[in-house]
Design goal:
alpha/beta; Rossmann fold; 463 residues; 3-stranded mixed beta sheet; 4 domains; 8 strands; GMP Synthetase, Chain A, domain 3; 21 helices
């Protein structure tokens, strides 16, 4: 079958798949596939690497074959072949160094031979973390814009490129996302020269080049020998006049050459003090994508992903997600504490074990959680947490429990099911409790006054 016919049928199949797979998944897994031929009733598609081939066969094989059969109007099977690199040993070395980009300055020094068991040339910039890839990143409403923009940049879906500025507080995943861009580009073509550095690295390297009289080599590295620049924590450029001046030249050179740029920071470009206007304008020239604190559902999904195959009960994941609400880094710390404690003590992973870990975990800042609501309720109504979790139906216990569930629903992002489980109840009980308290509020009775008082304490962060 002619290649043109195969390409036409594949285009039809892709349109079918586009409506069945989320946009970010389609861009990551389906878009890179290229049709090769029809061989013995098997449609041969080319994928960029072995990992992509394995993932597609495990997760999307049936979907792909169904779309192909409809597009070709006959029974066909799927065959995936990995893109073959040319160049023998040198290509093998490039595959081995997918996480970094080698230096390409051969004008003065001869090419060095590589001994078995040793890596190639010293990597440029920092190493990319192996697990900081797009498929390991959990997408939610808090970060979907940043994720889509980063994936689009990495997939090169446009002929014109604007810088991507990823903005978030510490520990929300901006380093993960920026490094995922580097991984994705190198997986598609290891010959790309990806520089991943922090603002502090850039400054130190420039100072060293000035002191060592190697400034020309420094300029060549960042202006001529760079295809993708990932610059982390640009807020640390504040006040560094000489560094900012050199960086502005670098950015001008890369932008004029159509290179890809990714910046990360916990401050908007306009908020970084002592930043030169030329640098500020270049940082703000592209898309500023903000990453917010993940909501409860996203935190649970993050914990499932971070569990890496370890069997952690759903109620434990929800307990951690409800009590650790600041950032992803602390979520991971809590989960690792639970897993480590379970292995060291030889005890099963349950809510009691998670509670012990949470007691020892230092959570930054004063955050409102179901646990802090319980403590507020216990202090106000003179009951114990065991009373709230008990099966008692005494009004002196039922009312505090209902108010606690109402406050949990009003001031946290947890579902009725999660709130109910926090009090050893079903979601229907949590829903009933919220409705009961709302009736008291509408009646403007004594209980409503108590609820308003507790709401004021919460809103004043007095809990």
């Amino acid at each position: 079958m002619l290649l043109d016919s195969v390409c036409s049928a594949w285009s039809t199949a892709k349109e079918m798949l586009r409506s069945q797979i989320p946009d970010h998944g389609f861009l990551l897994w389906i878009e890179p596939l290229k049709p090769l031929c029809l061989r013995d009733n098997s449609v041969v598609l080319q994928c960029p690497n072995d990992f992509s081939r394995k993932w597609l066969l495990e997760h999307h094989r049936d979907l792909l074959e169904k779309a192909l059969q409809q597009a070709f109007s006959k029974p066909v099977s799927l065959a995936l072949e990995v893109l073959q690199r040319s160049g023998g040993p040198e290509s093998a070395q490039q595959e081995h160094q997918q996480e970094t980009s080698p230096t390409h300055d051969n004008s003065r020094t001869p090419k060095q031979l590589h001994l078995p068991g040793f890596g190639g040339p010293r990597p440029v910039g920092r190493l990319l973390r192996r697990d900081f890839t797009f498929d390991r990143f959990v997408v939610g409403s808090c970060n979907d814009l940043a994720y889509s923009a980063a994936l689009s940049l990495a997939s090169r879906k446009s002929d014109t490129w604007l810088p991507l500025f990823v903005l978030s507080k510490t520990g929300l995943g901006k380093s993960h996302l920026s490094q995922a861009v580097g991984h994705h580009i190198l997986n598609r073509d290891p010959s790309f020269r990806v520089l991943y550095v922090t603002a502090e690295d850039f400054t130190s390297e420039m100072v060293d080049s000035l002191q060592g009289n190697t400034l020309n080599r420094f300029k060549d590295k960042y202006r001529a020998s760079c295809d993708v620049l990932i610059l982390e924590d640009v807020q640390f450029l504040s006040g560094k006049e000489r560094t900012q001046k050199e960086l502005s030249y670098v950015l001008d050179s890369l932008m004029e050459s159509g290179k890809r740029l990714v910046f990360t920071s916990d401050h908007r470009p306009c908020e970084i003090p002592k930043l030169h206007d030329t640098v500020r304008s270049r940082l703000a020239q592209g898309l500023v994508a903000t990453m917010e604190t993940p909501d409860f559902k996203t935190r649970v999904r993050i914990l499932k992903k971070k569990a890496n195959g370890n069997q952690v009960p759903q109620e434990v994941l929800e307990m951690l997600a409800s009590e650790i609400v600041t950032n992803v880094r602390e979520l991971e710390s809590g989960l690792n504490g639970v897993l480590a404690r379970s292995r060291l003590l030889g005890t099963p992973i349950d809510e009691a074990l998670a509670m012990e870990v949470l007691k020892n975990l230092q959570v930054a800042g004063k955050q409102l959680t179901i646990g802090s609501i319980k403590k507020l309720i216990c202090k106000f109504y003179q009951v114990t947490e065991a009373d709230l979790l008990s099966k008692s139906r005494k009004q002196t216990i039922v009312l505090p429990r209902q108010v606690a569930m109402y406050l949990g629903r009003r001031y946290t992002d947890q579902s009725f099911q999660a709130i109910g489980r926090s009090f050893n109840r079903y979601h229907a009980t949590a829903l009933h409790s919220v409705n009961a308290v709302e009736k008291h509020i509408k009646a403007k009775n004594e209980i409503s006054k108590q609820v308003f008082f507790l709401c004021e304490k919460i809103e004043a962060r007095d809990f």
